Structures are given as C-alpha cells and as structure tokens.
Amino acid sequence: PTISIINGPNLNLLGQREPLIYGAETLADVEALCRATADTLGFDVECFQSNREGAIVEELHRVRPFARGVVINAAGYTHTSVAIRDALVMIDAPVMEVHISNVHAREEFRHHSFISDIAAGVIVGCGVQGYEFAINRIAALRPATAQ
Ligand code: DQA
C-alpha cells in the first residue's frame, strides 16, 4: 500500500528557503522522514514535488486509483488553487493537508486554504514533523493491513 506525498512550489528549496520559518531540513530530509515513518506502519511512499500547478493536478490524477492516502503541502497554491482542490475532491482516500509553518500566525492571505474544508485533517506549524503526524493519521484511518 502506497501513500502519496505531494509538495508544491518552492519546497524544492527547503533548507535554503527562509530557514527561520521553514527550518534547516531539506526536501530530501523530508522525503526520507516520510519514507521511514511510512515503513514502520507498513506503507510505501511515492514522493512528488513540483513548482507547477498543472503538474500537481496530473500527479493527483495518476495516484488517484491506488493511493491509500495523500499528504499534501500545496505551499503557495494552497491559497489560490481551485484546480488542486478539485483534483483532491476526486480522491476517495484520506487527504491530509500539511504546512510546515503556522500559517495562522502569518500574513492574512495565508489564513485561507482551498484545501482545508475537503481534507481529512490539517496540520500546521509543527515543522517537518507535520508530515510524520499526517502519515500516522492516514495509517490510523486506513491501516496498511486493511483491504
Ligand atoms: C507553506 C505555507 C504557505 O503559505 C507558503 O506559501 C509555503 C509553505 C508551509 O509549509 O508552511 O510555500 O505551505
């Protein structure tokens, strides 16, 4: 069973990008953390990052038939993208929304998400540990051993 991990724009520069807000870990570190967390729960992960909205939509279409859960940090597209929201709505498996920073303690434009109301859960401001929490939550909702 596979959990899809989707990271949006500018997250390829994690570690270099505003480290006081987003921390020192790189995207490779985040993906390794996801793999290790999923492994302990009996899941595989497929990790995807893109700076392009359409590529994220297409990845959601690709994983839709088989993903047992989706962890998405849509980054800036969280606050703008009806298209990513629409692609997520088509996914039957639980979708967990993650933000590394506490978006509610930042600019007003980050307070609204097009994803939160259709997500199974939302984790903000827990740093990259949020990805770990999200994978654990998917495993609790849909254990790897279940059909
Ligand atoms: C982010 C928060 C977004 O507002 C921002 O545009 C990002 C990263 C986070 O992980 O905290 O790119 O999703």
Automatic annotation (TrEMBL):
Which residues bind substrate per the record?
N73, H79, D86, I100, S101, R110
Record: active site = Y22, H99
Arranged from A to Z, the UniProt key words for this protein are:
Amino-acid biosynthesis, Aromatic amino acid biosynthesis, Lyase
Q: Spell out the CDD domains in the cross-references.
A: DHQase_II
Q: For this protein, what reaction is catalysed?
A: 3-dehydroquinate = 3-dehydroshikimate + H2O
Q: Which GO terms describe its molecular function?
A: 3-dehydroquinate dehydratase activity
Keyword Oxidoreductase present in the record's keywords: the answer is no
- Give the matching SUPFAM superfamilies: Type II 3-dehydroquinate dehydratase
| EC numbers, comma separated | 4.2.1.10
Under the heading InterPro entries, the entry gives: DHquinase_II, DHquinase_II_CS, DHquinase_II_sf
Identify the pathway: Metabolic intermediate biosynthesis; chorismate biosynthesis; chorismate from D-erythrose 4-phosphate and phosphoenolpyruvate: step 3/7
What is one Pfam family matched by this protein?
DHquinase_II
Q: Mind listing the GO biological process terms from this record?
A: amino acid biosynthetic process; aromatic amino acid family biosynthetic process; chorismate biosynthetic process; quinate catabolic process
The family this protein is said to belong to: Belongs to the type-II 3-dehydroquinase family.
Assembly mode: Homododecamer.
Identify the HAMAP family for this entry: AroQ (MF_00169)
Q: What this chain does, per the record?
A: Catalyzes a trans-dehydration via an enolate intermediate.
Q: What is this protein called?
A: 3-dehydroquinate dehydratase
Q: What is the lineage of its organism?
A: Bacteria, Bacillati, Actinomycetota, Actinomycetes, Micrococcales
